[in-house]
Design a protein that fits this description.
The chain is α+β, with helices and mostly antiparallel strands. Strands 1-2-3-4-5-6-8-7 form an 8-stranded mixed beta sheet, with helices on both faces. A hairpin with a 2-residue loop joins strand 3 and strand 4. Helix 1 crosses helix 2. The protein is globular and about 45 Å long.
Amino acid sequence: MQVPYCRQLDNGLVVSSTRPEHARQLEQLQSLVFPTLDDLQRMKAPHYLKHLELFPEGQFVLLDGEKVVGMTTTLRLNFDFDHVTHDFEDVMQGGWMTSHDPQGEWLYGADIGTHPEYRRMGIARALYQARHDTVRRLGLKGQVTVGMLSGYGGRKQEMRAEDYYAEVCAGRIQDPTVSMQMRVGFEPRGLLADYLRDPVCDNYGAVLVLSAERGLA
């Protein structure tokens, strides 16, 4: 039987396993966190309920009392890192997450987000830690995610995505999303074009890996 995850942060906020009653708030939070994402790629309340059927131990929220102020959706997959060519639709299957493999060796982070009023309070890091605790409890190889290159959309007229990605990897450009994930401990493994439909990143994402044996930085 799954033991629900629960950890209180020093600021009083609580990381918890997602429950069915959180689904409607999670749908609302998607619009706040990803305002420029194509609405067809935003998850809705029925999707979150399906995720709880497929992989309940991989879904987390961050709570301020009963208010959902952070979230992350995960599934299990296998990866050949020499041939990573997937996109968000391949993974999420219209939001229903039916690509989830119960025997998958990697925990795939489909999304992570913080309510705009609660940023810079350690929420993302706490959610990454919950994911990493799950990796270790299940004996998985680590976390995989694709970080949105959210600073690239505003610079696409001045440089190629490949050059922007290389500069981010080298630390010469600080991308609002991917650079933060690298500071947590994720390592870049490649650039994906047309990963998702969002002008803020011109649809580009960076494949990122945090192996199980590494702790968060």
